[in-house]
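Renewal narrative, Specific Aim 1. Our central claim is that a sequence can be written position by position from structural information alone. The example that follows is taken directly from our test logs and has not been curated for this report. It begins with the structure tokens describing the chain, in the order in which they were read.
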């Protein structure tokens, strides 16, 4: 998962660590020794943070450095081989190594360019190099303020020399590296990549201490999209609206702890079984760290609907017939209506409901078949049909009579949980005077 740095230390500390401008799409942090001696090898750690709010791909890393800094690959400038892709809110760490050749204030500048040579961010870091005891000391160069952080033109000569990839790590540090030992907490949030609507998604956050000392007590908070509903969580949780949190104890170096929440998934009401899966996310934030720094991670679940797309009765292949067994009928006599529902389609129909609306003033004779019905005035509602398989059918029968002569009209209406609309069939029977 992508661990994201979403907080920051004080501005003064950021400037001391070699941090780029706030408006640059890529924030560049450089940390390294402040002082060293001629002949020593020094390492600078470069952290790139994508704070643009969008994915950035194909980033180039170019380093310009003073003559007193010696790189094994070439003289300044050098460019990392290959490019870097950064998802929104993620970081990447690189390490640059130099051999110190001359005393004085030696600086190097890292610049990030995109494939169109557009300036995306940069920062400068310097080290004060002392001469080795016994060696003639060169006059220190005048102190020059770091160049303003602006997008320079693409250098024409000398062209950057491409060197093998620098050592990189995707782990987000909590604070810029310092000589003193410190805790370094990492957050990893995992969840199922896909789930059916109504299923339970187990979301587990793992907090690890990759530092050299125990971490302070911290807080862990989960938030989730509205399509999730919480079911249960690890002991010690505090539940709020759309979020749950824990107070975490100190974590020893190399140690880890876990917290979990189970969420019920729910696909959008506008999606159906045939629709693409809908993306729903859970976010974890680790806070309460020194300097106001927070570490975050996100896990997303592709939720698939189990609801079929409604079909019209014609699309479903349904056929409905209503017929009388006796016509004409003398007053005082009865006729039987036979209703048949047939599935001529290629898929099960889903639950169906049938209602037969009898003529006004009609009276039911005997028991309908099936006999479990609901009678509301002239409406006779039969128990729901669970589902009809392709080629299947169901038959219903009810007998009635009317007290006056004339044409009596009955209507059968079928609806369904997976149908868009209804299907009707009409039967007219003549009742004649004796």
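The sequence written for that structure reads:
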């Amino acid at each position: 998962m992508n661990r994201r740095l979403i907080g920051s230390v004080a501005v003064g500390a950021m400037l001391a660590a070699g941090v780029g401008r706030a408006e640059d799409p890529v924030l560049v942090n450089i940390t390294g020794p402040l002082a060293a001696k001629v002949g020593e090898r020094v390492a600078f750690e470069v952290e790139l943070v994508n704070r643009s709010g969008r994915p950035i791909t194909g980033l180039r890393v170019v380093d310009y450095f003073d003559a007193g800094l010696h790189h094994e690959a070439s003289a300044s400038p050098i460019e990392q081989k290959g490019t870097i892709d950064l998802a929104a809110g993620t970081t990447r760490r690189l390490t640059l190594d130099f051999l110190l050749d001359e005393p004085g204030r030696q600086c190097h500048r890292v610049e990030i360019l995109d494939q169109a040579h557009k300036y995306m961010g940069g920062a400068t870091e310097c080290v004060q190099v002392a001469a080795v005891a016994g060696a003639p000391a060169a006059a220190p160069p005048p102190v020059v303020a770091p160049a303003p952080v602006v997008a320079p033109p693409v250098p024409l000569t000398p062209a950057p020399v491409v060197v093998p990839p620098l050592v990189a790590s995707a782990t987000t540090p909590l604070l810029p590296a310092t000589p003193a030992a410190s805790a370094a907490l990492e957050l990893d949030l995992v969840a199922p990549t896909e789930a059916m609507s109504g299923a339970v998604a187990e979301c587990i956050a793992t907090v690890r201490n990759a530092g050299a000392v125990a971490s302070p007590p911290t807080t862990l908070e989960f938030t989730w999209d509205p399509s999730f509903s919480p079911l249960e969580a690890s002991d010690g949780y505090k539940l709020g609206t759309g979020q749950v949190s824990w107070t975490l104890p100190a974590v020893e170096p190399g140690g880890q702890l876990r917290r979990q929440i189970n969420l019920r998934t729910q696909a959008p009401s506008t999606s159906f079984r045939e629709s693409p899966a809908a993306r729903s996310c859970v976010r974890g934030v680790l806070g309460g760290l020194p300097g106001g720094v927070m570490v975050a991670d996100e896990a997303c679940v592709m939720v698939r609907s189990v609801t079929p797309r409604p079909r019209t009765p014609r699309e479903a292949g349904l056929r409905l017939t209503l017929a009388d067994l006796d016509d004409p009928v003398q007053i005082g006599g009865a006729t039987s209506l036979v209703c048949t529902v047939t599935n001529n389609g290629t898929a099960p129909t889903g639950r169906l409901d049938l209602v037969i609306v009898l003529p006004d003033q009609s009276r039911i004779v005997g028991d309908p078949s099936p006999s479990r019905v609901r009678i509301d005035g002239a409406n006779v509602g039969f128990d729901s049909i669970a589902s009809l398989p392709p080629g299947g059918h169901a038959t219903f029968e009810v007998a009635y009579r009317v007290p006056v002569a004339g044409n009596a009209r009955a209507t059968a209406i079928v609806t369904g949980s997976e149908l868009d609309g209804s299907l009707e069939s009409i039967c007219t029977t003549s009742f004649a005077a004796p």
